[in-house]
Design goal:
51 residues; globular
Length: 51
């Protein structure tokens, strides 16, 4: 299973910094609010999005 989350959803859920780390994004990188990130089931579990 794959989970898709946008940058704005990650910010709302308070997990944006963790998503940044998972995808190698730095604070200097330009990211759009609607940019989507595809998480594996394991990554989604680590972020607390699924059980």
């Amino acid at each position: 299973m794959k989970i898709i989350i946008t940058q704005s959803e990650a910010v709302e859920k308070g997990i944006w910094t963790k998503v940044m780390s998972m995808f190698g994004i730095s604070a200097d990188d330009e990211v759009w609010e609607t940019e989507q990130f595809i998480l594996t089931e394991q990554q989604a579990r680590e972020l607390g999005l699924i059980r």
